[in-house]
Amino acid sequence: MRGSIVRSLLALPAALVTAAVCAQTAQPQQEPRPADDSVEITSQRLRPGLHVLMSGRNGNIGVWNGADGIVVIDDSLAPLAPRVAEAIGRIAEGPIRFVINTHWHPDHTGGNELLGKSGGVVVAHENVRTRLSEEQFIALLDMRVPPAPAGALPVVTFDDSVTLYLNGDRLDVVHVSDAHTDGDAVLWWQAANVVHTGDVYLSGTYPFVDLDSGGTLAGLVAALEAILARVNDATLIIPGHGPMSNRRELSDYRDMIVTVGRRIREGVESGRNLEEVLASRPTAEFDARYGQGFMTPTRLVGILYRDLTRPKPALKPSGRN
User: Fold this and answer.
1) Residue pLDDT, tens place only, 33-85
2) What mean pLDDT is reported for the chain?
3) Tell me, what DSSP letter sits at residue 33?
4) Residue 318 has pLDDT above 90, yes or no
5) Residue 299, class by beta-carbon neighbours within 10 Å (0-12 exposed, 13-18 middle, 19+ buried)?
6) What are the beta bridge partners of residue 70?
């Protein structure tokens, strides 16, 4: 039963496999096994001591190694964790010192427990620990996600940012608010000039704004603007999913989501319902480039329409008399 469920979940397209296997990882596994031998994990060297692991189905994993040890950024689905550990071992020998999660979704946190048992200290935004500790719901998948095992929870959390000084470089881990989720972190290697965006940026596909996890269109655009303000033409960009990217492609992505968001907002302000907004085809000229995966134009428009029409939270009191 377990194997058939896992195989069906791995058949889901990459960008939205997210929470699909949480039900399979709710209890700690003494001997986790790879879910599917057909899943190939490839390694790409970006800079000396810095690699990215890609499987074509799950989140992109950063591996940073040097004299001070190994740092892993995201760790795929739990059933694939042993394969991820093997791939890391082929890159570098030595202890895994830290595991950093870019957000809570299980295709980025599923290996926390296994890598934590290997000695890696799991680091994430405070909201990641909160969401992993509690049942979650993702409307797009119509799925309730049970709490993660205790051993998968982040041990070190931060609010705004945390910095690691290791392996001859400086790694800044910076929270971007209410973007893909409410716990997103973007990682910057200062000397190497590399950034890992997590799912704030999905290379070659429309974005997934997880409204049920605190994501918003406004926050996503603000996060993309912040990344663009810091990168340059030589920066290597590791997206949450998809092939390696660069500043020009990230700029195009930002322009696309701003344009689509503006068109949907204009439809909302003119009183159009969702069907009417869909009929106006606000994504038309971008569909060939970004709309061929799981995040179809219909799904994207539906999510953004829901975001732009839902009640806005009340302003918090200022605390002044």
Assistant:
1) 444 567 889 999 999 999 999 987 689 999 999 999 999 999 999 999 999 99
2) 88
3) -
4) no
5) middle
6) 65, 96
List of domains in the chain:
13-246 (3.60.15.10)
CB 84 within 8 A of CB 41: yes
**Predicted local distance difference test score (pLDDT) of residue 104:** 97
Question: According to the model, what pLDDT value does residue 57 have?
Answer: 67
Backbone angles phi and psi of 252, in degrees to 5: -60, -40
pLDDT value at 17 more than 50: no
Closest C-alpha among 99, 124, 102 to residue 114: 99
The backbone region for 191, taken as left when phi is positive above 0, alpha when psi lies in -120 to 50, beta otherwise, is alpha
- Cβ atoms of residues 208 and 199 within 8 Å: yes
Residue found under tokens 């939205």: 16
Phi/psi zone of residue 142: left (φ > 0), alpha (ψ -120 to 50 degrees), beta? Answer: left
Q: What residues pair up with 136 in beta bridges, in sequence order? A: 145
pLDDT (average), residues 204-219: 97
pLDDT reading at 2 higher than 70: no
- For tokens 């995040």, what's the residue? 295
Which distant-in-sequence residues (6+ apart) come within 8 Å of 45 by Cβ? Answer: 51
Contact 7, 129 (CB under 8 A): no
Amino acid letter, 120: G
Question: Parallel, antiparallel, or unpaired: how do β-strands 96-100 and 121-125 relate?
Answer: parallel
The three-state secondary structure class of 205 is coil
For the chain, percent of residues with pLDDT exceeding 90: 79
pLDDT of residue 177: 96
* 11 burial type by CB count under 10 A (0-12 exposed, 13-18 middle, 19+ buried): exposed
Pick the closest to residue 124 from 82, 68, 168, 181 (CA basis): 181
Alpha-helix residue ranges (DSSP H) falling in the chain: 2-10, 81-91, 106-109, 112-117, 126-133, 217-230, 247-269, 274-279, 287-290, 297-309
